[in-house]
Amino acid sequence: MPFVMGNAKLDVLSRANIQSYDFMTIKVENQSGIKLPRNFTTQVERILEILPREHTIGLERIIFIDVITQPQMRNRLNVKLPGLYYPKQATKPAFIEISTQQLAGTNEPFHKRIILRLSFKNNLAGLLISLVGQHYYSTLRHSIKRGQMEPAIRGYSEKYIRLWSQHEHRLRAKIFKPLEPTLDRWARKMRNAVAKQRVKP
User: Looking at 59-63, 81-85, 89-93, 186-190, which range is the least confident one?
Assistant: First the structure.
């Protein structure tokens, strides 16, 4: 994702029908009308748990909206933005917007929507880690010059996406470990059944 920042002109607290969740003092708001996976807030929480807490200091909220509405950014980059980081301005804290239309691919052909749905968790992790990286290097690492920002964020994303993938793999292994004896019994029964079929005249 291109390195971009937005201008915080939207009063995110004035919107009606907002679903809000708190993770480590970061509010997650779902202002989108697009259907998201039921456990997407749990996924956000697990992604944030991978990142050092000090990297999110000053980041107030993560907002899920249908489309990023920053015309100057969209026109300059000539792309539809999947996410945008808004740095702190005056008394308004920093926040992040994530486009659910881009994550879910609601305007894409059916087969692409299926692919995006299956990869939703991975895409969300990559996008959110990248945007938190922008926040970290923009506000907490003043030694990084503007020209060094993009490669620094890219390295940050690669490091923490790798850590997140390892964490998810360990979690899946932990969940399925109690089922291993049952799965092994099923596998043995299937092998025995196949062997019996082969020895029949």
Answer: 186-190
